[in-house]
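Issue: ligand-bound run for FE2/S2 (inorganic) cluster - logging full I/O for the record.

Environment: standard queue, default settings, no custom constraints.

Inputs:
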Amino acid sequence: MRRERNVAASMLVCQCNVITDNEIRQIILGLLKEDPWRIIVPALVYSELNKRCKCAGCVPNVVDIILAVTEEYHLQMTEKPAEPYPVHARLSAMRRKRPGGRNERRSTGHRAA
Ligand code: FES
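Outputs:
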């Protein structure tokens, strides 16, 4: 008999504490509902689960899940995704406006040792 593949099946993320990705997602979503701009770190997730990180082998995966869930949550918060902020253009404009150029108050004959 062929087994149906469950698409929504949980994936074991932390072998030491037997924590699945669904449990981690639920914790993150709960934290984001309390405060959408809260900075969530793996230690907070373990604390909410009343577990302790033992070998830390799962931490990179937990960080990936935190980033993905937080990004998805923030995208859902806005009706339309925000335009990317033009950081490079703004910094370039600020550099051009800065008096004194790039010499950092050194004389033109200054040489670093
Ligand atoms: S795999 Fe998560 S603490 Fe070891």
